[in-house]
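Exam revision sheet. Question 4 asks you to relate a sequence to its structure. Input first:
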Amino acid sequence: MPRRGLPDFEVVSLVKKGRNHVNSNNPGQDNDGTSDARLDSLDLQLKAARKAEAVRAGKDQVSAKGMRQGNRVLTELIAGPAGGALVGWFLDRLLGIAPALLLTCMFLGIAVAFRNIIKISAERPD
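Answer key, C-alpha cells:
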C-alpha cells in the first residue's frame, strides 16, 4: 500500500551487462574517464569562490596586524612588571631581604616593558 503524499519510485538497475561497478584504473569511479559537465561547472564555481574568499581574507589580514601589535603592547605592560615582581619576590624570600629586590626587579620589569613597547611602536602596522 503506497504512502500518502509520497510518489512510488521504481528501482532502476544502473549496472550494464559486461561492465564492472568500479573502474579498475580509478577505484570508486564508475565512469569511463569522461568528465561530467555539471561537475566541471561546479569545480569552476568552487575555484572562483575560493579565489574571491582568499582576496577578501587577504584584505582583512592587513588590519589584523594592528590588533596583533596592540596585543603585544598589552602583554608587555602586564608581563614586564609582573615578571619582575615575581623574580624580585623570589629573590627576597631566598636572601631574606624585605622588599628591596621586589621593588628593584619590578621597576626593571617596567623599564624593559617600556623599551619593548617603543620597539613595537616603531614597526609599521601596514
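Marking note for examiners. The chain is about 65% helix and 0% strand.
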